[in-house]
Design brief:
Alpha-Beta Plaits; binds adenosine-5'-triphosphate; AAA+_ATPase; ABC transporter-like protein; ABC_transporter-like_ATP-bd; four-stranded antiparallel beta sheet; Rossmann fold; alpha/beta; globular; ATP-binding; 2 domains
Length: 305
Amino acid sequence: MNNILAVNQLNKSFGKKHVLQDVSFTVAPGEVVGLIGPNGAGKTTVMKAILGLFPWESGQIAINQQPVTVSSHQVLDDVGALIEYPGIYPFLTGYQHLELFATGKDKQQRIDQVIEQLKVGSYIQRKAKSYSLGMKQKLGIALALLNHPQLVILDEPMNGLDPQATRDLRDLIMTLAKQGTSFLISSHILSELEKIVQEVVIIDQGKIIKQASINDLAATGHSFILLKTDDNSRAQQVLTKAGYQAELSGEQLKLEQKDEKELAQVIQVLTEQQLNILDVQHQHNDLEASLLDLLKKDQSQQVKE
Ligand SMILES: Nc1ncnc2c1ncn2[C@@H]1O[C@H](COP(=O)(O)OP(=O)(O)OP(=O)(O)O)[C@@H](O)[C@H]1O
């Protein structure tokens, strides 16, 4: 299947600062891809380049196999985007914004649909200057989705949204993706996106350090055993003596589980020393931890280079 978006060997500098270095990744139709990286990694710059907002030194960007450049924007008709802050006119109502940007014969239907999808009906007739941060954010997302684009680019879309609105947005993204819309969504928090993305592109200091499915990334994650005993500090000593590295974490002892048999062995070691186990929990697939691991490895690699 052809990719809806292909970024190939993109290089971009601002002055002397090489902000994107050979950035390559793809987005397939109907796929939700997370662009994840720490502050300043280059996420917004990648997104702005895809929208042809500035020139770059080398590399190609194609949407539906058509090149995007600063002077050729036609392919962007099929792209909806919210980058950084929504561009909102304070003296227009939310509804007037939608009227201004809606296209097509079914304009009215599109406006009504997006008002319902984003649940903005109660304030859409008010002037935008009275909107809270979250309300503005929802209007920005409504504008990105309004004309049923094939590809939607959202830069930190959960910014300013309360937990209910965050959940509603996740549900909406998943529904639209099932209907074939592709999404590229940036965040510096992986856990915020892990429920909706199939694929993650991890960027650090302008370089893509990994593009992987969320399942592959989870498989590289760590597993931990969390134990509560009637004497955690003695249990820690007993485990250390037996060759396990257990750290005290609040009311629990936390140790990395390297293989499946380990839990039974740990329990045996403790019960042999008359320690009572009050609670056992498993912590699996800590995606945030595996992301941090990747970033740490990348940074130590760069120090060596
Ligand atoms: N117009 C510009 N002029 C100069 N430097 C810029 C410009 N835009 C971005 N940069 C620099 O490029 C780097 C990447 O910035 P970018 O905004 O793409 O990061 P980000 O991953 O989106 O970060 P955040 O999560 O903080 O939004 C940063 O070092 C930033 O200072």
